[in-house]
Amino acid sequence: MLKERYKYLDEAGTDEAGRGCLAGPVTAAAIILPQNFGHQLLNDSKQLSENKRDLLRPILEKEAVSFSVCHVFQEEIDQVNILNASFLAMHRALDTLEQNPSFILVDGNRFKPYPSIEHKCIIKGDGKYRSIAAASILAKTYRDEYMATIHQEFPMYNWIKNKGYPTKEHREAIRKYGLTKYHRKSFRQLPEQLTLDI
Fold first, then answer.
1. Which of 10, 13, 117, 120 sits CB 3.0–4.6 Å from 132 for a disulfide?
2. Stretch (H or E) spanning 32
3. Cα–Cα distance between 153 and 156 in angstroms, integer?
4. From which residue to which does any coiled coil extend (predicted)?
5. Which residues of the chain have pLDDT under 70?
């Protein structure tokens, strides 16, 4: 059973998707839910099917007091590292909320403090608090949508299915075709550390 909130009525939940991927952005969402918002399907995005996430997304967008989604792309990930890029994505999502929250709930155990707003890190928070679960669904669906778009440009990597994660199929495609402009060059793309033509 997801908790309604941690502290304040106008607290924002934030979460990211795509941190462990070899290609594409890390994507974060921030959302403020209305008082007493609930939906029987709402849960951690990883516990939901793609169909259920896609069903919930427009409901969350319609009902939210405010929400925002932000991508940090591979070039910036390579410059600042993936942990800082994840914090950056969450900060930018918070920056672009139409309403400033009084408090921020963050999924995970680490966060770079956001200016002038108190936060709380919640380990596995996307399975504990509604606002974090909602943010996890928005981050996941927006990122998946982006990966489906760039799949059209490079279908041999099958990003529409693996979303850029290091599956066996994805790594076999990297061995065969090399890296694209969407791959994170600072990541260890293959276990054997091959030199790839970029």
1. 13
2. strand 26-32
3. 9
4. none
5. 192-198
Give the C-alpha separation, 165 to 22, whole Å. 6
* Helix (H) / strand (E) containing 69: strand 66-72
Q: Known binder of ligand: residue 54?
A: no
Given this model, what pLDDT does residue 195 score? 52
For residue 113, the 8-state DSSP code is: P
Q: How many Å apart are CA 10 and CA 100, to the nearest integer?
A: 8
| Residue 107 assigned ligand-binding role | yes
Buried b (16+ CB within 10 A) or exposed e, 36-67: ebebeebbbbeebeeeebeebbeebeeebbbb
What integer pLDDT is reported at residue 6 of this predicted model?
85
Predicted pLDDT at 36: 86
Annotated binding residue 16: yes
Pairing relationship of beta strands 118-122 and 103-107 according to DSSP bridges: parallel
What's the token pair of residue 90? 């969450």
